[in-house]
Amino acid sequence: MARKGKNNRSIGNWLIDRIARGVIWVLLMLPYRVRVTAMGWLARRIIGPLSGFSRRSRANLAYIWPELEADERRQITREVLDNFGRVVIENYATDEQLSRASSWKVHGPGLDAAEAALAIQRPILFVSGHFGNYQAARAAMNIRGFNLGGLYRPLNNPFLNDHYVKTIEAAGGPAFARGRRGLAGFMRHIKDGGHGALLVDQYYRDGEILDFLGKPAPTAISVGEIALKYDALVVPIYARRMENGLDFDIVLEPPIPHSDPVAMTQALMDSLAQQIQERPGQWLWMHRRWKPERQAEMAAQKGHSQS
After folding, report:
1. 38, 26 in Cβ contact below 8 A?
2. Measured at the alpha carbon of residue 53, what is the angle toward residues 90 and 152, in degrees to the nearest 5?
């Protein structure tokens, strides 16, 4: 029997990977503007509806902003899927991404603080979410003298993951898979004065229940813990897609003051929420961020065990 889970090298996963590789190979033969636009169209019109991403995105929008009309949820979902498709193919064309990154505007109140930390080799944690193109932010900073090592969650399909990891590494800086070994490597990288890139908008079953866009969201507080342990500067960073659909505005918000891990993580969640409210079509709304049914189940189990 084929094993299920993240190491499932089943025939089904192999076929999905073959199709994905074929689509990526064809698109990479096209001019940059054409391929990025085409992949956005494919995600919006084909991948989203077939995968269930469209339905999940609309459901999450209804959960967070129930006041939105159905037409508004559909429009935001189309923007989300278009951005998702563009991100995928952009990250597989790293040389061109790095070339374009040299002309992107990198700015914001966190930039001076980051450059000061770089000068004295102080560790830096650049924190973002599944917003805009998070790898574009890494690329923009790495070509400017930083060395952002990425802590990533391996894909459930191991065949896809094999080449997905290569796109992370190609943007510069090391890549560390979430897990005991990867986290240990990431911690060493930070301890030695390195720079890390982390995303804070992933569901973490055993995490602290924090507020995210007005709803409770189980969240890992490891950013705050690592920052306090190694005196790392914590800088929210976002690569916001520009109107031409191809380039990014890289903004570094003010560093998060050191306090306690929960408060620091909540500040990061509030920062990301503000970006999403301003540009809802650039966040990955099909992401299983809240899992309200799972939270209700866990609350019921906790109540039962205490009775």
Report:
1. no
2. 50
Q: What is the pTM of this model?
A: 0.89
pLDDT digits (tens, 9 = 90+) for 193-232: 999 999 999 999 899 999 999 999 999 999 999 999 999 9
Residue 299 to residue 61: CA distance in whole angstroms: 23
Q: Which residues pair with 287 in a beta bridge?
A: none
Report yes or no: 218 and 212 within 8 Å, Cβ to Cβ: no
pLDDT band at 163 (very low <50, low <70, confident <90, very high): confident
Question: For residue range 131-140, what is the model confidence (pLDDT) as tens digits?
Answer: 999 999 999 9
H or E, element range at 201: none
What number of other Cβ atoms are within 10 A of residue 58's Cβ?
Answer: 19
For 240-265, give the DSSP string.
EEPTTSS-EEEEEPPPPPPS-HHHHH
Residues 183, 116: Cα–Cα separation, whole Å: 26
